[in-house]
Amino acid sequence: MAKWTKLSASDSNSGEMSTLLAKDAEISGTLKTQGSLRIDGRVNGDLICSKLVTIGTTGYVEGNIQAENIIVAGRVKGSLVAKQKIHLESTAELHGDVTAGKLSIQEGAKIRGHAATDESRVPSARPQAQGTPESQPDNMVPRNRPVTVPQN
Question: Is the pTM of this model over 0.90?
Answer without folding.
Answer: no
